[in-house]
Amino acid sequence: MSQNNRITIAKRVVQELKEGQVVNLGVGIPTLIPDYLGDKHVFLQSENGLLGMGPTPPEEDINMDLISASKQPITMEIGASLFDSSASFAMIRGGHVDAAVLGALEVDETGEIANWAVPGQTILGVGGAMDLVAGAKKIILTMSHTAKNGNAKLVKKLNCPRSGVRKADMVITEHAVFKFVDGSMELVEILSDLTIEQLKEITEAEFTYSPELLEA
């Protein structure tokens, strides 16, 4: 996926965030979000022990002792708090994170999430994925619409291990925005120049849409 597409997704996520929310950002595309918040003020939380994460610093100001859970250089907003990771996970598990923006390997048509392991591949560990899926009040997934080999990542049934019983509220790809309502997937916005029929060709999962989208 091109960097422009990644930025498009990050900017679209910002529209879903509300003033004053505590928001956790996962690895990958979510790490771009701090640079596109504009005037919107949210409290960015990192599971390695920070509340009040700011945008990416200029290269000359990078301090690799100050990084996100994704090991990306960050800044701190005025009034930011530092604490140990156990306190950070207590915040997540206690339901104090309003929204988690996570990357995903796959999501099925009911919103079930797979974002930590690929069958047959060695992994370092689950990280905070399962805690965030279980503890955050809202889950927004960001991902490429298809894998590098062209296979669909929005699928009927997960091929990868699931991340927990909790399901996603929405998923944003470079092509479209989907929401999950009552166990079904609904197309709510098209972000690229693809038609709905073309979207169906690269989306294994079944989805509904309103007639207004055909007129857009």
What does the largest sheet look like? 10 strands, mixed
Mean pLDDT: 93
SSE arrangement, N to C: HEEEEHEEEHEEEEEHEH
Helical content class: 10-25%
Unreliable stretches = none
User: Distance between the terminal alpha carbons, to the nearest Å?
Assistant: 25 Å
Structural class: alpha/beta
**And the CATH topology?**
Glutaconate Coenzyme A-transferase
CATH H-tier superfamily: Glutaconate Coenzyme A-transferase
Strand content: 25-35%
Number of helices: 5
- Tell me the name of the CATH class: Alpha Beta
- What is the name of the CATH architecture? 3-Layer(aba) Sandwich
The count of β-strands is: 13
Widest sheet, order of strands = 4-3-2-1-5-8-10-11-12-13
Query: What's the domain count?
Result: 1
- Roughly how many Å is the radius of gyration? 17 Å
3D structure, described in words:
With 216 residues, the chain is an alpha/beta fold. The chain is built from five helices and 13 strands. Strands 4-3-2-1-5-8-10-11-12-13 form a ten-stranded mixed sheet, sandwiched between helices. Strands 7-6-9 form a three-stranded mixed sheet, with no helix packed on it. The longest helix has 14 residues, at 3-16. The chain starts with a helix and ends with a helix.
Short structural description:
This protein is an alpha/beta fold and 216 residues long. It is built from five helices and 13 strands.
Topology:
Elements: H1 3-16, E1 22-25, E2 43-46, E3 50-53, E4 76-82, H2 85-93, E5 99-103, E6 106-108, E7 113-114, H3 129-135, E8 139-142, E9 154-155, E10 170-172, E11 176-181, E12 184-190, H4 196-201, E13 207-209, H5 211-215
Parallel strand pairs: 1-2, 1-5, 5-8, 6-9, 8-10, 12-13
Antiparallel strand pairs: 2-3, 3-4, 6-7, 10-11, 11-12
